[in-house]
Amino acid sequence: MVGRVSVTLAPSRAPSTPSTAPRRRTRVLALPEARWALGATVSFLAGLLLDTVVGGPSWVYGLLYAVAYAAGGWEPALEGLRALREKTLDVDLLMIVAALGAAAIGQVLDGALLIVIFATSGALEALATARTADSVRGLLDLAPTTATRVTGADADAEETVPTSELAVGDVLLIRPGERIGADGQVLDGTSEADQATITGEPLPVLKRPGDEVFAGTLNGTGALRVRVARDPADSVIARIVTLVEEASRTKAPTQLFIEKAEQRYAVAVVAATLAVFAVPLAFGADLTDALLRAMTFMIVASPCAVVLATMPPLLSAIANAGRHGVLVKSAVAMERLGEIDVAALDKTGTLTEGAPEVTDVRPLPDSGLDADGLLALAAAAEHPSEHPLARAIVGAARGRGLRIADAEDFAAEPGRGVTAVVEGQVVRVGRVEALVGGAGRTGEVGEPGKSGDCMHSAVDGMHELGDRMHATVTGTATTARGETVVLVSRDATPVGTLALTDRLRPAAPSMAAALTALTGTTPVLLTGDNASAAARVAEVTGLADVRADLLPEDKVNAVRGMQDAGRKVLFVGDGVNDAPALAAAHAGVAMGRAGSDLALETADAVVVRDELAAVPAVVRLSRAARRLVVQNLVIAGTCITVLVVWDLVGHLPLPLGVAGHEGSTVLVGLNGLRLLRESAWRSGTAQEARG
User: Fold this and answer.
1) DSSP per residue over 508-520, as a string?
2) Which residues are catalytic?
C-alpha cells in the first residue's frame, strides 16, 4: 500500500521539475517568407545606396532592384496566382501589378520599396503564426510521455508505458517529484500537487484519496496511486491546446470585413486601370499616352497611401508602449486594445504576485513567545524545506532580521507539514486543516537513532495533537478570508499560528478603477483559485463580479458569454490556464515576468515588468492611435480621390501624380509619428491618475 510513505529529508532537496514546458522556437530564417524578405531588403538597400548616394552604374543598381522585385515578389505572386485559380483577386496580386506598373513607367525605386514593405509584412505574419504554434506544441511537453502503470492481480507489478496508451481505469503510480501522466482520481496516498499550470492556484494543493488530479501537474513529496479517469486526448491540458487552436483560427468580424473589402477594391482597381487604358485607345488615343495614363492611374489608386495612413499611428503607439514596458505584437492587436468595453482579470500572478507572504503572526498567550520568537521558531523548522510556504516563512524571518537556528532531523510529511528538532525541542509546523482533518496516519519519518525515536513519536502523534489544538485555534483560523493558516507546536504543545496569503500587487486597485473609468463597467474576476481567496482580492480591488474555481474551459466560456452578449472583452492573465481565454478574448494582455510561454505567445500584448498601471495606459494609447488612423484615412482618401478624378477628367502629369501620391503618404506618415512622443504616453497615464 502507498498509505505508509517514508520520506526523510535531512537538508537534502526534493526533486524538482520545471513548471513550464521547454521552449520551442522556430528560427526566423527557417521560414521561407523571412528568407525571401531578407533577400529583397538587402538587395533594395544596396541598390538604393548605389543609386542615391554613391552614384554607381545604372546597370548595377538596376540589377539589384530587379533582385529585390524577384525575391520580395515571389511569395505574393504565388499567393495571387492561387487566388486567381480560385477565381478571386486579392491585394497580393494588386501590389505586384502596381510595382511592375511603376517600373514600366520608370518609377523602379517606388515599385521596389512597395515590394520590400509587402514582403516584410508577410514575413512578420508568418513568424507570429509559427511562434504561436511553437508554444501550443510546447504545452504538450508539460504532460509526461511515459507513466508507471500498476499491473498484476495484487497490483504489485509495475510497467512503464507511453501515456498515449493509457486507458480509463488504469492505475498509475506517481512517485515524488514526478509529473502526473493523466487526469484521474487518487486511490491511495497523500501528497501535494503543484497545479498552477491548470488552475492558477499559487500554492500546492493537498491531494488525498478521492481527490482529482490533472495530467501535467507536478507531484510533491508523497507517492500516489491514481486511477485514470479520462483518455489522454481528453485531458484538461489537451483541451487547453484545442481551445487555443480553435480560438486562434477564429476570424474577427473586422477581419472578415477587411477581406471582403480587399476583394472588391482589388477588382475595382484592376477593372478601372484596364478601362483607363482601353477606352481612350478605342477612341484613337496614342498607345503610349493611354498606357502612361493607365499606369499613372494604377499608381495614384494603389492602396499604399491608405496602408501607410493606417500603420504609422499604430506602429508609433507600439514603439511608445514598448519603451514603457508593454510589447504589443501587431498593429491589429494595438487597434483591438482600444475597442474593448469590458475587462476580465485573472487573479493569481495578475492581480497578485503568485507567491505567498506571511501576513499575520499570532503567538498563543501561554506560549512564552512574542511574534518574532514564534516566527523565528517556525523558520528554523522550515528552513530545509523547498515548499512555497516554507520559503515564505523563512523569507519573512529574514526580512525582520531574525536569527534562524539550525534544525536537526528534519522530516516532511506530504500534505501535513514538517517536523524538526530546534535547540533540543521538537518543533512541528503544518496547516490547520491538515492537522485537524482527522485522516488516518499517512507516514513514518526518520530512522532509529539518537533522536529518531523522538521524531517518530512526534509524527505519530500528529492527529492527537490536531485534536488537542482544534479548540485552541478555531478562533484563529482564517481560511474563510482566503488565507492559509499554519500551526506551530513545540514539544507537542501549540504555541501559535501564522497566516499566509498570496501577495496583492499594490497597483491592483488603481488599475481596476482605471479600467472601470475607461469601459464604464467594473472588471470581472475570473480565477481558478477558491472562492474565499477570490473574494478577499475582489474586496480589496473593488470588483463585484467574482467567478472562482474555474478550469481553463470555464474561463473561455465566461469570456465567450460576455462577447455573445455584444461586449468586447479585454482579458488580462499570465498562466497556461489563461491561454485559451487570452485567445478567445477580443484583446488579451499577459504578465511578462512569470507568464507562461503559451500565455505570452497567445496574448496580443505583454506587460514586461508586470506593471499593472501599464494596462489601462496602453488602452488609452490605442484609442489615441485609432483616432489618428481615422484622421489619416480621411487625408489619404481625399488625396487619392482628387488625384484619380484629376487623372480621369483632366490630364495628370506623371511627376505630379507621383508627387501627390507620395506627398500624401509622407503627410499621413508624419501625422502618425506624433504618437512617438513621450507626451502621448504621459497623457494616458495622467488621465488614468485623474480617473
Assistant:
1) HHHHHHHHHHHHS
2) 346
